[in-house]
Design goal:
The chain is mainly alpha-helical and about 170 residues long. Among the domains are: about 50 residues; about 40 residues. It has six helices and no strands. Helix 1 crosses helix 2 and helix 2 crosses helix 3. The chain starts with a helix and ends with a helix. The relative contact order is 0.04.
């Protein structure tokens, strides 16, 4: 076992006493051979277990336990309908006057998004058309054997190559 994993287990199931017998044996074997994890276990026990060992156990009154269990059952029975009612509460809050500015900002952002998509598509189609046109011109020039290429290309290239060649 890796030390990081052992320390995670120590902080959760080990200090709570919830490890299975084989898992506890594997963890104890690692801790026996690893001084770093042994120190970590001692520090964890001192900080997480010892302060609470001598405290009296509290019991929950049966009436509280029954009320909690009843609420859990109600929520489980609500299922999707409970989720939808929570959603409708959220919508009613979103349309309250206190959220008016947020609705305005969101509306403006949606307008910009839609405009960006609409005009962005047109722009990308225009760029694509220009690229195709340019490539067609390049192909036409490259395929035309009657045109003879003279010079070096740009004016700057011609200047530098001719000057250096004449010197």
């Amino acid at each position: 076992m890796k030390c990081e994993r052992v320390q995670d287990i120590i902080l959760t199931d080990y200090v709570d006493g919830f490890l299975t017998v084989p898992a506890k044996a594997a963890l104890d074997a690692h801790v026996a051979g690893c001084s770093r994890c042994r120190e970590f276990l001692a520090a964890s026990r001192k900080a997480l277990v010892e302060p609470f060992q001598n405290l009296p156990r509290e019991t929950m009154p049966l009436s509280v336990m029954n009320a909690v269990m009843d609420q859990i059952k109600e929520k489980e029975q609500e299922g999707v309908w409970g989720w939808l009612s929570g959603l409708s509460e959220g919508f009613s809050q979103a349309f309250s006057p206190s959220f008016a500015m947020a609705r305005i900002v969101a509306s403006v952002m949606v307008c910009f998004l839609v405009a960006g998509v609409v005009f962005g598509v047109n722009k990308s189609q225009q760029v694509q058309t220009e690229r195709v046109s340019f490539l067609a011109q390049v192909a036409e020039v490259a395929g035309d054997k009657s045109r003879e290429m003279t010079g070096y290309g740009t004016t700057i290239e011609t200047y530098f190559f001719e000057e250096r060649g004449n010197s």
